[in-house]
Design brief:
Length: about 450
C-alpha cells in the first residue's frame, strides 16, 4: 500500500491537421461532422486549456506530442509511388478516404492509447503498459507503434515500468485501451479492482449483440491485457457493455460510465446485465474493505441518446488537494437542460463531488471525444514518478511554449481538400518539429 501515489493525467496535444473526415462508424458525432471545416488551432488550444485547468486544480498533468501524419509509409505500402507531393495527389484523386485515414489526428484521444495497470494492482508490483492496437478502424490502428515508442520514452524501462507489445492487430483481439477499462480503489496507491468492459466475445458467434454498430473491444483482448498486466484474478472483472448503448453511440465504455477511486458514475443502461455488474464491482471492492460509491443515472433522468449528445459520462473526475472531487464536464452538459439538471443533482447528492468545471472541447467533441477521451490515467508512486521523463510534465513555462507554438504554427481553418496540398505538409512538418523540441521527445 502506498497512499501517497498520484494519478497522472497524460493528454496528447491536438495535431495541426485535426480534421473532420467522418471516419468512425458508430461514433455519431464523427459521422455527423464528415466534411465540416475544422479549426486545428482552436482544437489544440481547447485541449491545452483543459490541461492547464487540471494542473491548476492540483492534478499531475503531462503532455504527449501529436503523432506525425500523414502516414506516407502506409500509402507507399499499398502501392502509391513517387515523391511525397505525387503520393498525396494520387491518393486524394483515387482514394480520398484513405488519404484522410493517413492524415487523422486521432492520437489526440489518449484514453485509447493504452491500458495501464498501476504497481499496486500487479502481482509483480510494477507498472504495466499495453498500447491499444485499435484494430477496429484503419486510421486508429496506425497509432499503436508510435504510442508504444512514446510510452517507453516517458516511462523508461528499468525497475518500475513494463511495456508490452500491442495485441495482434485482428478483430479477435480488438483492444481500445483505457476507454474500456476502469480501476476502482480506496486510493491510487492502494490495491484496487480492475474492471475490463468489453463489447463482444470474438469466440462467440451467436447471441445478441449490437444491431446497428459493431462492438470494438473484445473479451479476448481484455483477458489478454489482464494476463499481461498480472492483475490478481480475484480482483479482476470482465463485464459487457450493453449492446443497446453501443447502438445508441456509446462506442466505448467511457461514453456511458466513469470511475475514480471508489466512485462510479454510470448510466443505468451502460452494462449488459445492468446493476448486476455494479454489484459484482461492489462485492470485489468490499473484499478490499472498500465501499463503492455508485452514482446511477436513469434513462428517465437522461436517455442514452442524451448521454451520447452531452457526453456527461465522459467527464473527468479529479480529487482536489482538499480531498473533495471535481467533475470536469463538457460545456455541452451546461447547455443541455436535462444534462445540467443531472449535474446539479450530483452536486447536491450524498457523494464526494462538490464542484463542476465545464470545459470547451467542441472541436474534439465533433469527432466524438470529450474530456475523459483526451487523457490516459497513470497512477504512480513518488519513486515511479521521479523515474518518468520530466520534460512532459505540465508547468506554466511548458504551457506558454506550447501555446506559442500553436498560435504561430496552426491554421484556424482546414478542409479535407487541404490534405492534398504539399505546402500544408511542409507547414505540418515545421509545427511538428517545433513541438518535439519543446517536449524533448523524438518525432
Ligand atoms: O475512435 N474519433 C475517435 C473518438 C475517440 C473517443 N475516445 C474515447 N471515447 N475514449 C474514435 O471514434 C474520429 C475521426 C474522424 O472521423 O476523422 C475518431 O476517430
Amino acid at each position: 500500500m502506498n497512499p501517497t501515489a498520484h494519478e497522472v493525467n497524460l493528454d496528447s496535444l491536438v495535431a495541426p491537421f485535426h480534421n473532420f473526415a467522418g471516419l468512425s462508424r458508430g461514433n455519431v458525432a464523427s459521422e455527423a461532422h464528415r466534411g465540416a471545416v475544422s479549426n486545428p488551432k482552436a482544437a489544440a488550444l481547447q485541449g491545452l486549456e483543459k490541461m492547464k485547468l487540471l494542473a491548476d486544480l492540483g492534478v499531475k498533468q503531462a503532455v504527449l506530442p501529436p503523432q506525425e501524419r500523414p502516414d506516407l509509409r502506409l500509402l507507399r505500402r499499398v502501392g502509391f509511388r513517387g515523391r511525397d507531393a505525387q503520393i498525396l495527389d494520387e491518393a486524394y484523386k483515387t482514394e480520398p478516404r484513405l488519404l484522410a485515414m493517413c492524415y487523422s489526428a486521432s492520437s489526440m484521444w489518449t484514453a485509447n492509447a493504452a491500458t495501464v495497470c498501476p504497481s499496486a494492482d500487479a502481482t509483480d508490483h510494477r507498472v504495466h503498459f499495453t498500447p491499444a492496437n485499435l484494430a477496429s478502424q484503419v486510421h486508429r490502428s496506425l497509432e499503436a507503434p508510435k504510442t508504444a515508442e512514446l510510452l517507453k520514452a516517458v516511462f523508461p524501462r528499468g525497475p518500475y515500468f513494463v511495456h508490452h507489445a500491442p495485441l495482434p492487430v485482428t478483430s479477435y483481439w480488438g483492444d481500445e485501451g483505457a476507454a474500456n477499462h476502469m480501476r476502482l480503489c480506496a486510493d491510487h496507491g492502494a490495491p484496487g479492482v480492475q474492471v475490463f468492459v468489453y463489447g463482444r466475445a470474438a469466440a462467440v458467434v451467436s447471441g445478441a449483440g449490437p444491431r446497428i454498430y459493431r462492438a470494438r473491444q473484445t473479451l479476448e483482448a481484455s483477458r489478454a491485457v489482464a494476463r499481461l498486466h498480472r492483475t490478481d484474478p480475484k480482483a479482476t472483472l470482465f463485464i459487457r457493455q450493453n449492446p443497446c448503448a453501443i447502438d445508441a453511440g456509446a462506442f466505448h465504455n467511457d461514453v456511458a460510465a466513469v470511475s475514480h477511486r471508489n466512485l462510479l458514475l454510470y448510466h443505468a443502461e451502460a452494462f449488459e446485465d445492468g446493476d448486476a455488474s455494479v454489484r459484482k464491482i461492489e462485492h470485489l471492492l468490499a473484499r478490499r474493505n472498500v465501499e463503492l460509491q455508485a452514482i446511477r443515472v436513469t434513462s428517465e433522468e437522461l436517455s442514452l441518446t442524451e448521454a451520447v449528445q452531452s457526453y456527461l459520462f465522459n467527464s473527468q473526475l479529479a480529487t482536489l488537494p482538499d480531498e473533495t472531487t471535481a467533475l470536469i464536464a463538457p460545456v455541452e452538459c451546461r447547455e443541455m437542460p436535462r444534462a445540467r439538471q443531472v449535474v446539479e443533482n450530483i452536486l447536491e447528492g450524498p457523494n464526494p463531488i462538490t464542484s463542476v468545471h465545464y470545459v470547451d472541447l467542441r472541436e474534439s467533441m465533433k469527432n466524438g471525444g470529450g474530456p475523459a477521451c483526451t487523457r490516459l490515467r497513470v497512477a504512480l508512486t513518488p519513486d515511479e514518478l521521479a523515474y518518468a521523463h520530466a520534460a512532459v510534465f505540465f508547468t506554466d513555462d511548458l504551457y506558454t511554449r506550447l501555446r506559442h507554438c500553436i498560435e504561430h504554427h496552426y491554421r484556424d481553418r482546414l478542409t479535407l481538400n487541404d490534405l492534398a496540398d504539399p505546402s500544408f505538409l511542409e507547414e505540418v512538418r515545421c509545427a511538428m518539429e517545433k513541438l518535439s523540441r519543446v517536449l524533448d521527445l523524438p518525432l
